[in-house]
Amino acid sequence: MCRSIKTLRPPVMPVVEDEDIRAAALQYVRKVSGFRAPAAHNKDAFDAAVEAVAEATRTLLDELVVRGTPKAEVAS
């Protein structure tokens, strides 16, 4: 599932931009919903889901501890 979503955690991506997180969230919501772009009547729900997934992703990346990664790289 979601083969085009790239790994965002250190050390694979030492610097993760908000646009990377949003792109991954958008791809996930597209895959789960089955829609590349939502119809007008589903746009609010679609956009809210993208934002929720992006926020959850940021929280996950901020809290992950990856063994072998220097602490300076872990902090975002």
TrEMBL record:
Please report the name of this protein according to its UniProt entry: DUF2277 domain-containing protein
Tell me what organism the protein belongs to.
Answer: Streptacidiphilus cavernicola
Which InterPro entries does the UniProt entry name for this protein?
DUF2277
* Pfam families, per the entry: DUF2277
